[in-house]
Write a structure and sequence with these properties.
Blueprint (H helix, E strand, L loop, with lengths): L2 H31 L3 H10 L8 H17 L8 H24 L2 H26 L4 H21 L1 H11 L7 H20 L3 H33 L9
Length: about 240
């Protein structure tokens, strides 16, 4: 007779840990969202975007909007944390894009405006197209695969940085706190997806977690190596 109560307790425990992982992921994501602020302080101070690219913010906005739509009740259930994190993320990216457009040259201004319109058009087509699918399961698969592909491509971008670190044996272009935040964010939503039994969440975040571990391992290895080389003193000093 106690079996149903045990099942409910087990499910309640899973739900609690899912919420804990989701809240942690939202907190770690906030660290990532504010990481471009030093760049934009420089842009505002110099009133120029200099050689900075606005493409990462365009792509991040697209990713946030697709994942936001996937987390909505129209597509999936019990994914409130995905809605909150991607709503905040989309707001930050849109603000960065607006600031970038305001301070860049005329050529880049038009380019960024066109790309921004393309993002809204693509997301609009995804939303309208998915709502035309009457079967909820098919709709879930359609948007789920799109959000998964978007996240995997985003997490794959550090592969270029990893290659650069190995080639140059330097961690100059791989900030530690950015790598740590990415790892913690991916790890949190990996657990969130597992507790929610959502493969479209835990699969890309599992890949992100592995890449985060690789980045942190490389940072520790090459950072330690550079310190050892800097502090190494010759055993015999020649004055000849």
């Amino acid at each position: 007779r106690s079996f149903p109560m045990d099942v409910f307790a087990f499910q309640g425990s899973f739900s609690m840990w899912k919420d804990v992982a989701g809240i942690a992921g939202n907190i770690f994501a906030f660290g990532l969202f504010i990481s471009p602020m030093p760049t934009f302080r420089r842009i505002l101070r110099n009133k120029s975007t200099e050689q900075f690219s606005g493409l990462p913010y365009i792509y991040s906005l697209l990713n946030c909007l697709i994942c936001l739509w996937y987390g909505s009740p129209f597509i999936s259930q019990r994914n409130l944390m995905l809605v909150t994190v991607n709503s905040v993320g989309a707001t930050f990216q849109l603000c960065y894009i607006i600031l970038f457009i305001m301070h860049t040259d005329k050529k880049n201004k038009m380019r960024m405006l066109v790309l921004l319109l393309v993002v809204f058009a693509v997301v609009g087509l995804i939303v309208a197209g998915s709502l035309q699918i009457p079967d909820k399961l098919a709709r879930w698969y359609f948007v789920g695969f799109l959000s998964c592909a978007s996240l995997v491509s985003m997490f794959a971008s550090p592969l270029f940085v990893i290659n650069l670190v190995i080639r140059t044996k330097s961690v100059e272009f791989m900030p530690f706190y950015l790598s740590l935040s990415t790892f913690l964010l991916s790890g949190s939503f990996l657990l969130y997806g597992l507790f929610n039994s959502d493969a479209f969440v835990y699969t890309p975040n599992g890949i992100g977690t592995i890449l985060g571990i690789v980045q942190l391992s490389l940072y520790c290895y090459y950072h330690r190596s550079s310190i050892e080389e800097e502090t190494k003193e010759p055993l015999i000093v020649s004055y000849v």
